[in-house]
Amino acid sequence: MAVVYILLVFVLFYKLTDVCSSMTLSSSSSDAVLIVVDQSGHGDYRKIQQAINAVASNNSQVVYISVKPGIYREKIIIPADKPFITLSGTVGTNTTITWNDGGDIFNSPTLSVMASDFVARYLTIQNEFGTSGKGIALRVSADRAAFYGCRILSYQDTLLDDFGRHYYYNCYIEGATDFICGNAASLFESCQLHSLARALGTITAQHRNLPSENTGFIFLGCKITGLDNGTFLGRPWGPYSRVIYAHTYMSNTISPDGWHDWDDPRKQGTVYYGEYMCYGPGANRSKRVKWSRELSRVESAPYLNKTLIGGRSWLRPTPTHFKIKTHLN
Question: Does residue 101 carry a catalytic annotation?
Answer without folding.
Answer: no
